[in-house]
Amino acid sequence: MRSPVQQYLESIVDQCNSGDGEVAAYIPELAAADPDQFALALATVDGHVYTVGNAETAYSIQSISKPFTYALALSDQGFEAVGRKVDVEPSGEAFNEISLASDTGRPKNPMINAGAITASSLVSGDSGIHRFTRVREWFGRFAGRALELDESVYTSEITTAHRNRAIAHMLREFDILEGDPEETLDQYIRQCAISVTTQDLSLMAATLANGGIQPTSGERVLEATYVERVLSVMATCGMYDSAGDWISSVGMPAKSGVSGGIIAVLPGQAGFAVFSPRLDPHGNSARGVQLCERMSGDMDMHMMHVGRMSNTAVRARYPLSELALRRARPEADQAVLDAHAEKTMIYELHGDLLFAGAEHVVRAVVNDAPDLAIIDVRKVDDVADVARVTLLGLRTMLREAGGEAAVVDPEGVMPDPDAGTQKASPYFDDLDSAVRWCEDELLRQHGREPAEERTLVDEHPLLRDLTPQARKVIDHHIEEVHYQAEDIVLEAGGKFAGVHLITSGTAIASVEGPGSSRVRLVTINPGTSFGELALGTEGVQETRVVAGSDLTVLRLSAEAIETITAEHPDVGLEMWQAMTRDAYRVADRALRSGITFG
Ligand code: GLN
Q1: Which of 17, 55, 417, 431 is positioned for an S-S bond with 199, CB 3.0–4.6 A?
Q2: Can you give the residue ranges of the Cyclic nucleotide-binding domain (predicted)?
Q3: 257 lines ligand 1 (CB under 6 A)
Q4: 22: annotated binding-site residue?
Q5: How far is the CA of 257 from the centre of ligand 1 (A)?
Q6: Residue 578 lies in a domain
């Protein structure tokens, strides 16, 4: 099968075939390049690379080296030391302008030659060659393979580098370069002559898109905070004197080189590389610019394009009173819960929680002013630091009002910084358990101790309405069974094994997921039962039920149910009526929940 992404890339390559521009001639070796060469590569952040044209043809990296050397200087020296020598202001000047900022004496940014030569000098190392070797290895870690120097391009450029030599000496004159300017110039020209393919460049870009982790090796090459800096400088200065045009029309951090390459980075999604040696008057690949504009437009890649509004973080918001869960509470307790269930609110969140999403949650909670809140983050993918801090502020706010926020977070997307201390929030693996905790808390707030587990069992719909005579018969057949944490109580695929009422501990129902994983469905708490659903699936137990802790159940086995039905038909009738009522009650709640929140 041919991927539609591949087909799309091939089709735009055919359509964007600008033959405008000239091959760079000031480096003799580059002037000899075949102007009609072409390659495009798109590398995703999980390391898949799509290519069109000859993406394995090698050429010298040239100025595309600049962001990566700057990254190494930052890694070696930190923001402050690098910032003392090179600024981050767009210059609006050509790449090889002989200029320094008049006030600071620093090169305006690390993407023009003056700044790039300075950045090369900031790489740690004992000599120019040592620093260059570190640069070459560093680039290789972004590309995911070892890279080599193209000797002929290096020789060709070093012997004609009059302008860059002038820049290096000027930098030395202003003490921006501190060592021998010739040594730094040599290092810089070597760095520009490192040989790469379009595929390499796409992976180097994808490493930046992936927050500094190389997609195929999984190695963290660059700290995330430096990735942000490098991308910012690429966005504002990467395309020299056409940076404004580029960021308006393409909208991605990018870098071009005079051999005809361009990389562009779509943070969080992909890295692109295009190669076509004919350059426009700014020194950027003409066909490369054309293609990037086209891709960005077609694929909504402009970084200012807002896909999903991130303030839609709250997918559902409702009071406890509307929640469809099985409950088994003594009636007096249930009355208290019913009276106050409006003041416990459940907030189901989803997506990535950034500032706007967290603010939305906060506004909802402030507006509802609940006594207790359940924050359910099971469908949340990622929580930004700002959201974490904001939601902690929410917790403080609720606590000051005498309330509390319970968190449902089985995957640990929002770990509690106070975990293990007195200040920790109540965390739960499923909504069921969080609701149970809130109910107990509500009862306590209103002066009632949550009922003993035994009492809960008596309140179970199966037992609660039985006549004393029927209850006696059933009690006679019920047996108490103990399990240890992780014991399998019911295996999926087994036969109906009777009704299990939990008197203490918890049980976890799960089904088989993809591979050998297990998908946890629900935690079953004291006072509720399991096993009877098998009656609805032709007597086959569909879920695996495992003890979540030390577990005690009252079991009415399948045989016992048969015996009761045979020996005491009237009790059997009562029992089956109770079971039917319970089943309809569960179905009714499930149905209502579908209508209310589906
Ligand atoms: N080596 C080239 C130079 O310094 C790199 C310039 C570029 O690619 N724009 O002139």
Answers
A1: 55
A2: 462-582
A3: yes
A4: no
A5: 6
A6: yes
Ligand 1, atom 6: closest residue by C-alpha: 63
Among residues 448, 449, 466, which one has the least CA distance to residue 457? 466
Q: How far apart are CA 397 and CA 407, in angstroms?
A: 15
Annotated binding-site residue? 164: yes
Determine the 3-state secondary structure of 6 from DSSP.
Answer: helix
Same domain, 428 and 498: no
Are residues 433 and 410 part of one domain?
yes
* Cα-to-centroid distance, 129 and ligand 1 (Å): 19
Is the same domain home to 115 and 252?
A: yes
Q: What is the pLDDT of residue 455?
A: 63
pLDDT (0 to 100) of residue 325: 54
Q: Are residues 21 and 65 in the same domain?
A: yes
Which structural domain, as residue segments, surrounds residue 370? 314-445
- Tell me, yes or no, whether 309 lies in a domain: no
Do 52 and 192 belong together in one domain? yes
* One domain, residues 372 and 438: yes
CA 326 to chain centroid, in Å, comes to: 34
Is the same domain home to 333 and 417?
A: yes
Same domain, 463 and 526: yes
Burial state string for 109-148 with b = 16 or more CB within 10 A and e = fewer than 16: bbbbbbbbbbbbbbbeeeebeebbebbbebbbbbbbeebe
* Ligand 1 in reach of 115 Cβ (< 6 A): no
With a 6 Å cutoff on the Cβ, whether 63 touches ligand 1 is yes
Closest alpha carbon to 405 in 431, 382, 427, 383: 427
Handedness of CA 139, 142, 147, 153 (dihedral sign): negative
* Catalytically active residues, by annotation: 63, 66, 188, 240, 258
Question: In angstroms, what is the span from residue 165 Cα to ligand 1's centroid?
Answer: 12
Using CA atoms in the order 113, 114, 118, 119, what is the torsion angle rounded to 10 degrees? -40
Q: What is the pTM of this model?
A: 0.74
Tell which of 425, 445, 465 closes a domain: 445
* Residue 284 assigned ligand-binding role: no
- Cβ of 187 closer than 6 Å to ligand 1, yes or no, is no
Q: What's the CA-to-centroid distance between 102 and ligand 1, angstroms?
A: 23
Q: What does the pLDDT read at residue 291?
A: 95
Q: To test the ligand 1 pocket, which listed residue (23, 118, 157, 262) has its Cβ within 8 A of the most ligand atoms?
A: 157
Q: Which residues in the chain land under pLDDT 50?
A: 595-598
Last-in-domain residue among 410, 445, 480: 445
Provide the 10 A C-beta neighbour count for residue 458.
17
Residue 394 sits in a domain of what CATH number? 3.30.750.24
260 lines ligand 1 (CB under 6 A): no
